[in-house]
UniProtKB/TrEMBL annotation:
Residue ranges occupied by any N-acetyltransferase domain in the UniProt entry: 19-175
Keyword vocabulary terms for this entry: Acyltransferase, Transferase
Protein known as: Acetyltransferase (GNAT) family protein
Cited Gene3D superfamilies: 3.40.630.30
Length: 175
């Protein structure tokens, strides 16, 4: 399957790398599970409400796959050489009547993760750029995502990419 596009060499204070973006394939499953395991482990360290471990990563991938299929979404990987070093799962969505009509149709980023060894190289920004390209192609004017309140690295990356706080989600665990 051809790459969506290939990014040439780029450098963000690290050695230049060449990566390509493409739709996730069945052969990518184990690599993506590894990335989601990193994500669930990291989020588990930030919130006791988050599940962790291989089963949580597998459930996450199954949920991403189902939502992408049911809601016109996509699952994209970033490949560097022979390695999958990034993953993006997104879907189309529609917000209710409490949002202005032109902003209701949106793309929701279900998951985005970059391999720990590749963070800080711009791969996350490339994935966010692909989400924006997907949204524009679908006629959507808004990207939505959720992030844990204590995930400072992700929050900073999203702010650099132009995201603003839209809503605050709260939870109360009932005993």
């Amino acid at each position: 399957m051809p790459a969506l596009f290939v990014w040439g060499s780029f450098s963000y204070g690290v050695p230049a790398v060449t990566v390509s973006l493409r739709p996730m394939q069945a052969a990518d499953r184990q690599a993506v599970l590894g990335l989601l395991l990193e994500l669930t482990s990291h989020e588990g360290s930030l919130s006791p409400q988050r599940t962790t471990g291989p089963a949580a990563a597998a459930d996450c991938l199954a949920d991403d796959t189902e939502k992408a299929a049911e809601h016109g979404g996509a699952q994209i990987v970033v490949q560097q050489g022979d390695d999958v070093v990034g993953y993006l799962a997104l879907r189309l969505g529609r917000t209710g009547p409490f949002v202005h009509e032109p902003l209701r149709d949106h793309v929701y980023i279900e998951n985005i993760v970059v391999a720990a060894a590749c963070r800080g190289t711009g791969i996350g920004q490339i994935l966010l750029g692909e989400a924006e390209r997907f949204a524009r192609a679908a006629g959507c004017k808004v990207l939505h995502l959720s992030v844990l309140k204590d995930n400072e690295l992700a929050l900073n990356a999203y702010h650099r990419a132009g995201f603003e706080t839209f809503a605050v989600e709260m939870a109360k665990v009932l005993e």
